[in-house]
Amino acid sequence: MTKVSNFYEAKNLSEAIFQLKNISELNIVGGCTQICHEQNGDFFDLPGNILCLKNIDELTNFSRTERRLEFGAATPLAKIENRASSGKIPGVLLEAIKSIATPAIRNFATIGGNICSPGCKKTLYAPLLALDAILEFKNDKETKLVPMQKFEEQFASLLPQLNLSEFFKDFITENPEAKEKRRYLLSKVIVPLQPWTLEHFSRFNRDSYGNEYGFSLAILVRDEKGVVSDFRIALAGAFVFRDRDLENFIVGSKLPLSPKFVSHFMAKTEERFDEVFKTADFCFYQMDKTRFLNSIRNVVKGLMI
Ligand SMILES: Cc1cc2nc3c(=O)[nH]c(=O)nc-3n(C[C@H](O)[C@H](O)[C@H](O)COP(=O)(O)OP(=O)(O)OC[C@H]3O[C@@H](n4cnc5c(N)ncnc54)[C@H](O)[C@@H]3O)c2cc1C
User: Fold this and answer.
1) Considering the domain 198-304, what is its CATH architecture?
2) pTM here?
């Protein structure tokens, strides 16, 4: 038997924030596609009170200036994809969007839902991390701008999260004070725009150890007058990797890179990877590490030509 949920809508962002403050146990949803995907029973079950952001204009559109893109958190992925030819979207982000589900599902799936889904990081996480995206969160008291890199540590636990197992676990164990803190919604995703000489996006390891979307890898390279002026690597899935020291190792290098430099860089990459994930499960970690290193090697080798 399906539980009955109270489904709330808001006309604008202020109304959504008002509801978030005043309706107890309110959960935010975008397109519901992730929530739906997590359920394998005959009925679609949603807990308690649900606030859908899909009809709020401020949250379902995006704009572009010379310096940045601003996506309302409930912007459907298909909308971003369809407008990509007229307004430029960074290639790594566009490729990542196109790799998600089917066009029909992307009509509902939102950028905010992809970032806020609990558990393993979803497909857009790595490209947004590499692009130094900034997330805007709101509640009735404040607006906070959180760099993507700080999201997990500062904010993920402050969202009302509609994950059934977590929801029921929280319901039983959490104290009311902790629940009360969960009163933010993601309102905007800001992506700084910079020219990139090379943009790489790939996915691997789908369907491995309960992480059905696998890992996403985003690599960005900018060269100015034959010198690497910016270099970024982000990996996200069951774990997240972004390392400024490693990136800085290559910044300032002259192009084309020498084979000796590339092997130095790859040794450094492996060293950093080992340091960050020394506690990870050994068997899975080795498998992911090899794929991760091979993908990076292929991209960096391209800078030898
Ligand atoms: C067949 C199928 C294939 C899929 N393939 C992929 C794939 O390859 N890669 C991938 O990444 N995903 C995939 N998905 C999952 C999903 O479509 C995407 O992750 C999508 O971007 C989620 O967005 P949504 O709006 O539907 O999220 P929802 O399901 O509405 O929400 C997901 C979570 O985010 C929270 N949330 C949503 N919006 C906000 C907000 N503004 N503020 C705070 N919290 C919020 C919700 O409370 C919930 O916990 C697939 C889904 C299906 C059905």
Assistant:
1) 2-Layer Sandwich (3.30)
2) 0.91
